[in-house]
Amino acid sequence: MESLSSRSTSIVSKLSFLTVWIVFLISSSSFTSTEAYDALDPEGNITMKWDVMSWTPDGYVAVVTMFNFQKYRHIPSPGWTLGWKWAKKEVIWSMVGAQTTEQGDCSKYKGNLPHCCKKDPTVVDLLPGTPYNQQIANCCKGGVLNSWVQDPGNAASSFQISVGAAGTTNKTVRVPRNFTLMGPGPGYTCGPAKVVRPTKFVTPDTRRTTQAMMTWNITCTYSQFLAQRTPTCCVSLSSFYNETIVGCPTCACGCQNNKTESGACLDPDTPHLESVVSPPTKKGTVLPPLVQCTRHLCPIRVHWHVKQNYKEYWRVKITITNFNYRLNYSQWNMVAQHPNLDNITQIFSFNYKSLTPYAGLNDTAMLWGVKFYNDFLSEAGPFGNVQSEILFRKDQATFTFEKGWAFPRRIYFNGDNCVMPPPDTYPFLPNGGSRQQFSVFSAVLLPVLFFFFFSR
Ligand SMILES: *[C@@H]1O[C@H](CO)[C@@H](O)[C@H](O)[C@H]1NC(C)=O
Ligand SMILES: *[C@@H]1O[C@H](CO)[C@@H](O)[C@H](O)[C@H]1NC(C)=O
Ligand SMILES: *[C@@H]1O[C@H](CO)[C@@H](O)[C@H](O)[C@H]1NC(C)=O
Ligand SMILES: *[C@@H]1O[C@H](CO)[C@@H](O)[C@H](O)[C@H]1NC(C)=O
Ligand SMILES: *[C@@H]1O[C@H](CO)[C@@H](O)[C@H](O)[C@H]1NC(C)=O
Ligand SMILES: *[C@@H]1O[C@H](CO)[C@@H](O)[C@H](O)[C@H]1NC(C)=O
Ligand SMILES: *[C@@H]1O[C@H](CO)[C@@H](O)[C@H](O)[C@H]1NC(C)=O
Ligand SMILES: *[C@@H]1O[C@H](CO)[C@@H](O)[C@H](O)[C@H]1NC(C)=O
Ligand SMILES: *[C@@H]1O[C@H](CO)[C@@H](O)[C@H](O)[C@H]1NC(C)=O
User: Fold this and answer.
1) pTM for this structure?
2) Which residue has the least CA distance to atom 1 on ligand 5?
3) Where is the signal peptide (predicted)?
4) Distance of CA 418 from the midpoint of ligand 6 (Å)
5) CATH topology identical between 46-224 and 228-268+288-455
6) What is the pLDDT of residues 119-160, one digit of tens each?
7) Of the candidates 337, 252, 244, 256, which has an alpha carbon nearest to the alpha carbon of residue 296?
8) Ligand 3 site: residues with CB under 6 angstroms?
């Protein structure tokens, strides 16, 4: 009897291993070709536009504007870094609203020295508080670029560049090549510059239109896979109908016993916590993240609690907790996917906007903090959390507490996909019935989800 059951278990485990493997192969082959693709923001990109405003005796003056067309991914402090390679022997005579990090070798020049002579300049934004005579519109925000949905007014960044030793007509100018964008870390891939129709500018009174001499565009897209291999957030779940709290998966963002960089963590009971958290460092150095020791080691946890059931409504409480001692998240955002997000009745103390990744699909919402109230998620500690409640109106045709329906399908924090617990561990309704069916279903679904979360 016993050997029979153990044999059938081993067959089952072989079968499910096979399923995992097949699903893995299928999903990896379909994902590699679409690496930068984000299902919830398929068009998301950062587009840079170079408008040549005038020709000079040895080159041109251009205004470069970066637009963040991503719905929910912003570029946080310390901001963007932009690089490219000149096609010829161009130099930068001067810049307004940004600067290169290095001047390079300008020894060929006498008297009036260029701002930068490097073949591959690296440009950063100026800091807030820059004198007005060194500013242009949309500059000097320390490289911070907000997302399109959250704050369209601050989703652009501009600087002016005066280029020498360059072409002086639209026939002789060579567009720069090999653009790179750090935002602030890796993750973005930029395409080649494409000459497009010259931008038209309308005067504020709309009575006159001028146009650029020449315009080229560069589009950069983001891939979480390129950015870092370890996830940065995880999801935990609970409900009023079952006392089980399903925590984040163990080792979701790293493992504690592994003392490599992702494994280093700090016990909150450490004496002299303050001095360990911020050791004396040179000004301007960026400290590596330091997270609180947890089973999951994620800097961010999103907790989804199914709180109450009413006749026509149901209520969810969302808590976002910061476990990173070395990072305050300003202007954080979160994206949730759940079928009932098409019919939110009320949301308390977060901003909300429905995202429609595809026409007719309304199951995705972006949430972010209310300015000056909870848009700042403090470092790990007593204030390191923000919370809100959502009231959903039930659609009687689809609503159920069974099979984990009330839990989100996907959660993103600051544009990064969060690791979900495996579906067959979700808290379920007492006497919920179809448990067996559900775990067979999840045996197929789980590897897909697993691969999905760890691949981006
Ligand atoms: C960049 O994003 C904008 C806005 O979503 C979209 O209109 C445009 O087609 C995108 N560009 C590319 C090259 O994907
Ligand atoms: C070039 O970029 C600008 C701003 O990012 C955008 O408005 C314009 O549509 C782009 N042009 C083309 C042809 O993609
Ligand atoms: C250069 O300018 C001329 C005259 O304005 C125009 O006809 C031509 O299309 C432009 N070429 C490019 C590559 O923009
Ligand atoms: C730079 O871009 C050119 C095409 O514009 C490409 O052939 C070359 O491989 C790139 N070089 C690097 C180092 O990426
Ligand atoms: C620790 O992590 C590194 C890199 O992530 C990995 O190569 C190594 O095998 C891990 N060690 C253990 C004991 O898990
Ligand atoms: C986070 O913000 C608080 C209050 O502004 C500040 O005291 C603290 O030093 C900041 N922490 C980090 C890691 O930047
Ligand atoms: C999706 O939501 C938007 C805004 O709430 C609404 O205008 C639109 O009609 C909805 N679409 C569907 C298919 O429900
Ligand atoms: C929300 O649900 C109510 C009741 O089911 C329905 O009357 C209403 O049209 C729904 N609204 C949307 C935007 O789907
Ligand atoms: C609550 O859900 C868990 C699965 O996550 C299950 O093991 C447990 O039996 C459930 N509790 C009740 C009272 O049904």
Assistant:
1) 0.79
2) 258
3) 1-36
4) 24
5) yes
6) 999 999 999 999 988 899 999 999 999 999 999 999 999 999
7) 252
8) 170, 195, 214
